[in-house]
Amino acid sequence: MEIWNRHFECMSRNELKKIQGERLRETVERVYFNVPYYRHRLQEAGLGPEDIQCIEDITRLPYTSKNDLRDNYPFGMFAVPMSEIVRLHASSGTTGKPTVVGYTRNDISVWSEVMARTLTSAGADRNDFIQIAYGYGLFTGGLGLHYGGEKIGASVIPVSGGNTNRQLQLMHDFGTTVLACTPSYALFLAEAIKENRINRNELKLRIGVFGAEPWTENMRKEIEKKLMIKAIDIFGLSEVIGPGVASECVEQEGLHINEDHFYPEIIDPETLVVLPEGSVGELVFTTITKEGLPLIRYRTRDLTRLNYGKCKCGRTLVRMAKCLGRSDDMLIIRGINLFPSQIETVLLEMSEIKPHYRIIVDRVNNLDTLELQVEVDEEFFQDKISQLQNLRGKLQENLESSIGLGIKVTLVEPKTIERSEGKAKHVIDKRKF
Amino acid sequence: MIINQLSVFLENKSGRLTEVLEVLGKENIRITALSVADTTEFGILRIIVSDPERARTLLKEHLFTVNITEVISVMAPDEAKHYARILKILSDLDISVEYTYAFPAGKKSVIVLRCSDNEKAIKALKEHEMELLKGSDLYKI
To answer: By the CB < 8 Å criterion, does B57 face chain A?
Structure first.
């Protein structure tokens, strides 16, 4: 299997640490002199740029959160004058003001580089046709994949998200070999292929590059089976750069983090202490080459663990486990921590149910209630009430034994739960605190 | 003697049944028999229609979950004892009835049955000289 940048992707740990240390030192110096926010935070902590000399010194630095970005909306955290910024992206801002990310010309080139690594590690090359069904625009998905695809010399099809019929037509007529979109949209497309009676053998699809929302191992199996492709998990967040922060290789045993650009740590989200290797905790990134919006110890809210062991693919870059949930998606139901991904895992283990679900949380008489709406699989539906009730009972039992919470299960008609072409909205929390 | 009945999964939401009937009505599909089995949250609509295959395709196009279920049908005088007799014939042979419903046709009743073993049920009812109906008979009613 090809490796895009063997020098950095297969570097020895010692050599990499040395480079990370140098780049961190430069970054801290840059933010100290160019970003008032960071200068204040460092001064508060009694630190100057000279205090950071090697990568181990990173633990002395303060954390940055999404709120810090919002407080400095729109450009307050940028470390270069606006004349150096060549591109702006922004998060959707569903929970408040959007967070804005500025890129210098060099940032765009780093982004293309890490996306070229991502696509190469997924098994793509210049002979591929990459259909990019991520949204183009302020969202980083579309353009991130686009630049990476061009960099490796593939034929890029910038179809953007939505318009399923056109997706299918292009996929068929252009002979798309690589599909890039969210995993939930990949499943949606798989269903659409079946419904439109498109012969799978007439499609050339072989690889899927999926990310931008959490998905389970079982969901991967389902996508791989239905689309007959290898489904590769990619990871990124716009604040850090967009997609390209980390991606799986064909071994599918964790996502290699491009840690020569983005330095990862795992912390306890409550105590903020750095956790030992292998522990599950919140992922934190420090960007060590970015110019436009450098971030020091940025709290991603994603929960995962790191594995520094050698990968069969030859890359030495640390691997992060598939995201296990988000520290802020976590629902606290009657005092028990619950991640939507736990529910999804149970659903995917039951063939009679489609993994389309919605969790509705409410509070009745001061008691949290949990309702799960799931769609009945058409192939499973027969006209016996008892069969449907048994199915509901079985699901309820499986959920209770795996998450330790009583949950009301409601069977709903297929296609009634909204399919998102972007990120799936799985939780409706009606509680008022 | 096997009759194709349509079974439709419905959430207990107002308007869903209307939608099913409107979809079929627009295409002039006739409904001979209809029955709804329900729980508090969902129900199953069972209908016998003039063109089950076409009705199924139409409903699928409108995103309903539909299946074709095989049932049998008997015509008998509309007195309870005749209904009882039919059920007795079946239970004597350990054929269980998963559900049944009936509707009037003049002085007689048309009884629809879904049995654990439809073929065996047909054989038994024939032996007792019951008047079994074919799909084409039903659609004419």
So the answer is: no
d(CA B129, CA B118): 16
pLDDT digits (tens, 9 = 90+) for A78-87: 999 999 999 9
In this predicted structure, the answer to whether residue A95 has a pLDDT above a threshold of 60 is no
CA distance linking residue A252 with residue A394, whole number of Å: 31
pTM for the model stands at 0.68
Q: Do B64 and A382 touch (CB under 8 A)?
A: no
Question: Cα distance from A378 to chain B (closest Cα, Å)?
Answer: 6
Pairing label, strands A207-210, A230-237: parallel
Q: What confidence score (pLDDT) does residue A388 get? A: 87
Domain B71-140 in the same topology as domain B3-69: yes
Please tell me the predicted confidence (pLDDT) of residue B99.
92
Q: Residue A268 in 3-state DSSP?
A: coil
Query: Phi, psi at residue A119, to the nearest 5°?
Result: -70, -40
Å between A181 CA and nearest CA of chain B: 25
Query: What is residue A233's three-state secondary structure?
Result: strand
Say which of B5, B9, B98 has its CB closest to residue A413: B9
Distance between B93 CA and the closest CA of chain A, angstroms: 22
List chain A residues with CB under 8 Å of B39: 385, 389
Structural domains in chain A, sorted by start: 331-429 (3.30.300.30)
**Is the domain covering B3-69 a CATH 3.30.2130.10 domain?**
yes
Is B9's CB within 8 Å of A415's CB?
Answer: no
State ipTM.
0.75
Topology of domain B71-140 in CATH is VC0802-like (3.30.2130)
Domain boundaries, chain B: 3-69, 71-140
